[in-house]
Specification:
Elements lengths: L2 H6 L4 H6 L3 E5 L16 H12 L4 E3 L28 H6 L20 H22 L6 H10 L1 H16 L10 H4 L3 H10 L1 H27 L3 E6 L8 H5 L14 E5 L9 E6 L3 H6 L3 H11 L4 E4 L7 E6 L9 E4 L3 H10 L5 E3 L7 H9 L4 E4 L21 E4 L8 H7 L2 H11 L8 H9 L4 E5 H4 L32 H10 L8
Parallel strand pairs: 1-2, 1-12, 2-3, 3-6, 6-9, 10-11, 11-12
Antiparallel strand pairs: 4-5, 4-7, 7-8
Helix pairs in contact: 6-7, 7-10
Amino acid sequence: MNSTAVKEETSCPGFALLHRRSAGILMHPTSLPGPGGVGDLGPSCHQFLDFAAAAKASLWQVLPLGPTGYGGSPYQCTSSFAGNPLLISLEWLRDHGLLDRDVLQHPLPSGAHTMLREAASLKERALQAAFDRFRAQGSAGQWSEEFSRFKDEQSWWLEDYALCAALKEEHDGAPWFEWPQELRARDVDALRDAGLRRGDRIEYRRFVQFVWWLQWQEVRAEARRRGILIMGDIPIFPAHDSADVWANQAFFKLDEKGQPFMVAGVPPDYFSKTGQLWGNPVYRWDVIEDTGFDWWAKRLGYTFSLVDIIRLDHFRGFMAAWEVPAGEMTAVHGQWVPGPGRRIFEHLGRTVGTLPIVAENLGVITPDVEAARQEFAFPGMNILQFAFDSDSANPHLPHNQGKDVVTYTGTHDNDTTVGWFAAAGDGVKGYLREYLDRSEPRIPYDLIRLAYASAANTAVVPLQDVLGLDGNARMNYPGRQEGNWGWRFTADQLQDHHVRPLADLARAFGRLPESE
């Protein structure tokens, strides 16, 4: 994209932010403290925004916001459009008259780890009570008209999701590909009968999504009021057990029983010697392209109605994806299969409009991936934890970074910087000492400073590094199926003394909010 095109698109706040110097914090809402067993969009979320604004951050980066399945992974959501009900604040519902004042009389502990099972039970009961009260209010109740409008405007995804969720409940949580054949294959008469039979539960699911949407829009408005934009995240492949795959089976490499015969992953890399076997079904790109990439246009368009910038996970998968035969135990025996390449982004640019996208381009990246990223002015990613294991030519080193990247100390897939440094080999530590000209690095501060000092337009630091936490606060271990995504911080950990270093670095290296 040439400089004239860039200037023409600076009216888009997300695009403009990615093309000036700024700083941000990476923290998923489930990591917030609070009384509901898992972080949510209540008071602690607004308090975090106050902290981020005081630290002169212009960006808050989150992970995918959808409802999670087994293991709580936000990269295995049951819908690409729905919001995670666990993020709904019961305090908000109480304060808006939809729950009794004593709803949190016996709160769940706000410890250093989420309590997903307990939180799901608590919130399901509370949301059902809120729905019963909302329905009893009838047309005279608050948000009655807005709820009707929400259902009409979002019906194109909401109806499939609500029906899928209601049927999943009817079948004791079984995935859609284990349902009776007529439901699995979406027989028209069977779906009509299910809609009549499960009408009340379908309406409940619509209501839960409406409440989530209300709360998220309020959070987004509060972020904007503080001068903070939000970067969301789109996994390239939806989960197999998702409303997306169930409703669009022709878009995926599935057999007649709804089972994938090829699944997604990545070959052996930095994170895993046997690769990562994600298990998601892969696309039939020819079928999707015949529709004018309509599902992808809707996916990006709707996500941009929730966030200002999108981090597009596994960007290289649009050029070529690693496909593994179903049934393999590792991702070793796969092959690269071409994707739509630049054609999809040309089309999305015409249908969606300006695309403030960050392309996740980590791992083994081929020239066509970088060419597409640069053509569409999508910043890539650099990770400082990857910078010190080779020599001065390492592309992750600050002196090798260009402007068109987002630089991180680490991401949700890395150890915390304190944990990384503790486990690093002598070679990595020695090079870091030489690079910093410091016999005893101040970890994590020195890496945060390198991120802010880099040429990259955007510097993002995980909250764990802001707080100086060790590896016990790690969010995810790629390739490990359990024990991820659970980290939370406690209210007393976020202190005023964490603000000044970030604010001083933003001032020193020209990353202050635009209003300043």
